[in-house]
């Protein structure tokens, strides 16, 4: 099958990105009727509907969703190719990342990045949810995983490694001579799979502690605060709590760290790889990570 007319693809890309015929028409400088006509031509050509029309909006059909991502990416690449290479086409860099990385590592560094790029506004959002770049005002994400996300350019930032930590006061009350001694203390969020992994690698039978009541918190930052207050042992990333470890407000009783082969990655659509703001932020992050290693 030959490539459909560009006008129809252009209309489909805008409607799929906004999930709105009205907003697509405004962006394209067309009437809503003209956009609907182009979509109808494309649907007739493909022999299947691309959108489900609902009383309160529209959604992509299965076929529509199949075509939407590559079409949006293709137009993103075209916009990038024809943009002025010397101009930053976005005045705001919108970053979405997970809460712990934002609070423990990224947010203290963003001020330096913004000061080095005074003409660029920076916005940080925290979320664990998957971002749909075609429909959300997000420039880049930092997420945990293996980096194999279709359609996205991904750069590995740091491996995810965990180990138990606790306050020196709690350690004085209950000295830890061997990993099994941890079972004598309250373990924060004992359902965290890193507890089972770390204990198994340390040769400790952790199964007897399953189902025990305990304190479960939503993020590593909350768990760290609870550990600082002496309420239990938290499973934390040493990289994120270097200050607390250096000052002695938290103690890492054992050298062993455990990982599941996951890392934090900077990711964004491939079509955005040459945007000046993203290039600057990518270089900044990689420099900061390298500085951490040193």
From TrEMBL:
PANTHER family recorded: HTH-TYPE TRANSCRIPTIONAL REGULATOR, HTH-TYPE TRANSCRIPTIONAL REGULATOR TRPI
Listed GO MF terms: DNA-binding transcription factor activity; sequence-specific DNA binding
Keyword Transcription: yes
CDD domains: PBP2_GcdR_TrpI_HvrB_AmpR_like
Keyword terms of this UniProt record: DNA-binding, Transcription, Transcription regulation
InterPro entries found in the cross-reference section: LysR-type_TF_proteobact-type, LysR_HTH_N, LysR_subst-bd, WH-like_DNA-bd_sf, WH_DNA-bd_sf
GO biological process: DNA-templated transcription
Domain HTH lysR-type: from-to ranges: 4-61
Record has DNA-binding as a keyword: yes
Protein source organism: Paracoccus limosus
Family that this chain belongs to: Belongs to the LysR transcriptional regulatory family.
Coiled-coil ranges from the UniProt annotation: none
The name this protein goes by in its record: LysR family transcriptional regulator
